[in-house]
């Protein structure tokens, strides 16, 4: 199949190293995933393009009932997490509430 490889039921383009899109990384199955950098709790972190705040919370295995998310200095309501797609250079702070006495 010219121009692509089959993986996961869909055709993915073939790239030589010099042609990889900026911010792309090659997966173990040979597919290419485009990524972008964000700041997460003060550290540069790469996430897949198209990642939502909800995706990130689930990927970090956080309990959504115990965290608050700030994106670019604004608190984001948990009801909006799956609707907000992260953008390159977003700054996120995820604060976890811990009970105690």
UniProtKB/TrEMBL annotation:
<dbReference type="InterPro" id="IPR016155">
    <property type="entry name" value="Mopterin_synth/thiamin_S_b"/>
</dbReference>
<dbReference type="InterPro" id="IPR012675">
    <property type="entry name" value="Beta-grasp_dom_sf"/>
</dbReference>
<dbReference type="InterPro" id="IPR003749">
    <property type="entry name" value="ThiS/MoaD-like"/>
</dbReference>
<dbReference type="Pfam" id="PF02597">
    <property type="entry name" value="ThiS"/>
</dbReference>
<protein>
    <recommendedName>
        <fullName>Thiamine biosynthesis protein ThiS</fullName>
    </recommendedName>
</protein>
<dbReference type="InterPro" id="IPR010035">
    <property type="entry name" value="Thi_S"/>
</dbReference>
């Amino acid at each position: 199949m010219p121009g692509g490889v089959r993986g996961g039921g869909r055709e993915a383009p073939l790239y030589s190293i010099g042609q990889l899109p900026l911010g792309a990384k090659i997966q173990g199955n040979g597919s290419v995933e485009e990524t972008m950098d964000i700041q997460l709790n003060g550290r540069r972190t790469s996430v897949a393009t198209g990642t939502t705040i909800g995706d990130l919370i689930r990927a970090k295995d956080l309990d959504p009932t115990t965290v608050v998310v700030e994106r670019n200095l604004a608190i984001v309501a948990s009801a909006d997490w799956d609707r907000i797609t992260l953008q390159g250079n977003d700054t996120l702070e995820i604060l976890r509430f811990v009970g105690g006495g």
